[in-house]
Request: fold
Amino acid sequence: MSPLLAPDVLLAHFPPTHLVTTDLDPCLDETVDLAGRLVRSAVEASPVLAPVTIGHAHLLYCTSPAPSQVDLQVLRGLPRGFLGLSRLSGDCHAADKWIVDKIRDLILS
Reply:
């Protein structure tokens, strides 16, 4: 089920959420909409670490229980699927490293 179709009651149980997408991702508008819905749903839930991909937006649920925490990062100039291109592009590699560092910070916080 797409989180875009989920009722607000269900979204209210999402843990603090970090969304990463790119300005070239065809799902950018949907990712921005999801972030807005999560904020409006007053995100609160038990801490979880569960990296997943929904469509082409890469979501990271963080480990620290911070109510109403929604973080949306839009990376510029990277193609959809950039996580699989780090060996071909320095920019994609730098973005991959940034995401790994972000996950590490979330785990250690």
Residues 43-67 have pLDDT under 50 and may be disordered. The radius of gyration is 14 Å. Residues 30 and 101 are 25 Å apart (CA to CA). Helices lie at 8-11, 28-40, 90-108.
